[in-house]
Amino acid sequence: MVEQPFVKIKHVEDQLVEKIADNMHTYGVSTTVGRVLGIIYMNRKAMTLDELSEATGMSKTRMSQVVREMVDLNIAEKVFEKGIRKDLYNVEQDYYQTFISLFTSNWQKAINKNKMFEKKLSAELKNILESDTLSEEMELKVNDLLKETKEWLDYYQWLSRLVDFFESGDIFMHVPKP
Q: Is the pTM of this model over 0.85?
């Protein structure tokens, strides 16, 4: 008789895990990562790769890749527990913080990549400007492109400030948690 409530509870937990996976997909994260995040979250404590492999039916090698991706996204971390020799992984239990980690992690990568791109383009355009063989029309075009790269950089600097705004928690002063 005790079995039936356990099965119902497990069914609800499984539905929550699938909804978390679906939500992660909305944020541009694979449903596999979302599912593992949900499993650890619902477990309410850190889990080993073996436990995660068993819970998902995935190989330990694949699970290692998924967990590495989660750590890179800043939504999981390796933790230490006295007496346990295997690596343990845990996730943030706060939905808001998980969102911020996902949000800022992906944007920070884009910011860094695009700042480097802008530097490269600007240097290339400045080298072209130093050329003696530019017509007036070509010089105007290069200057327009330099202006465009400056606007590009301004946008990514703004985006960097937005990431800082989220990571500092200041967002909650303007959009409070319920």
A: no
For residue 88, give both structure tokens. 């343990």
* Adjacent-strand bridge partners of 91: 76
Question: What pairing do the DSSP bridges indicate for beta strands 88-91 and 76-79?
Answer: antiparallel
Contact 66, 16 (CB under 8 A): no
pLDDT tens string, the chain, 178 residues long: the values are: 567 888 999 899 999 999 999 998 888 899 999 999 999 999 999 999 999 999 999 999 999 999 999 999 889 999 998 888 899 999 988 989 998 998 898 889 899 999 999 999 999 999 999 877 888 999 999 999 999 999 999 999 999 999 999 999 999 999 999 9
CB 71 within 8 A of CB 77: yes
